[in-house]
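Hi R.,

Here's the chain you asked about this morning:
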Amino acid sequence: MAMAQRKATEQVLVDIQSLTVDRVHNAQSKVAVLATSKGAPASDTIIVVERKMADAEVACQLVSSLTVEDVFLHNDKYIKAHVTAPAEFKVAITHPATTADFEKYQEFSCIVPETKEHYQTHVMPYLDSQPASKLQWLYNVLDGVCEADRVVLRDEDSKIGFVLAMDMKWDGTHPERDLYGQAIPHVRGIRTLRDLRKAHVPLLRNMNDQCRQALSARFGVPKSRIYGFVHYYPSYFHFHVHFVVHTAGASKSAGRTHLLDEIILNLEQDSKYYANKVLFVLRKQQDRLAPAHPDDLGPNGDECLTEGSSTVGVLANEGTT
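And here is the predicted structure, written out as tokens:
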């Protein structure tokens, strides 16, 4: 593992030489910079700068002097590493990166209702068009091919089993505040919250019980402070559950987060609860998956596009969480 980490670090050092800033997303305490390498072949890198009041100009200045400290994630899709930065900053890079990866850092612009009809006519055709190879990085985690050092628990049951791993966004420090795990079931075919039925409750209960217990035992956080939730829309389309620790000031994020305990209760009462429910989703500026906001529709019911809008937008941001 040490040899692999050393090679990963060396590769990142080569690839991030002579980076030039392409675009910036500035969101409260976090600034994401998409930078392009002049090497051959050219490749993109995402630099994420965090502090209480992140500044886009300062973040862009850091691009010209990146020095890798340690690689904390290396799979067949990404290398994620911490880089040297002034004490008031926390800086990490993702390499190589795509435009879709970068769009994950774009702020949400509004909350819109999604009906089951919109899901069936707009979302499902997109999901059906995606090749299985797009999730190969995830299947490698499930099969134990990569990221084994981040796995906390494996349950190999074909129906209710899963892999619990430290989330890509968490570097393993300060679990009492920042603990972040992600549980991925072995069963395939559950792509989003809308695919869940009452028959999946045993799987959900197993994930909820075992993951909270395992994270508590491993990181010393009381089980009562750990809870699971599901994103809709998710960042990639194989069902998964996030597990975090409740902290002062933590809240349920409107429009995207659904508590696992609540999901289980709803499915027990109505197997097609999420298949039929109007779900409110967070919409980004360049977004063709979520419905348009009524205020953005033209006189003929067509969406008013702003200059630079993408027909793909955030549709293809699988691969990160």
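One quick note: Confidence is low (pLDDT under 50) at residues 297-321.

Cheers,
M.
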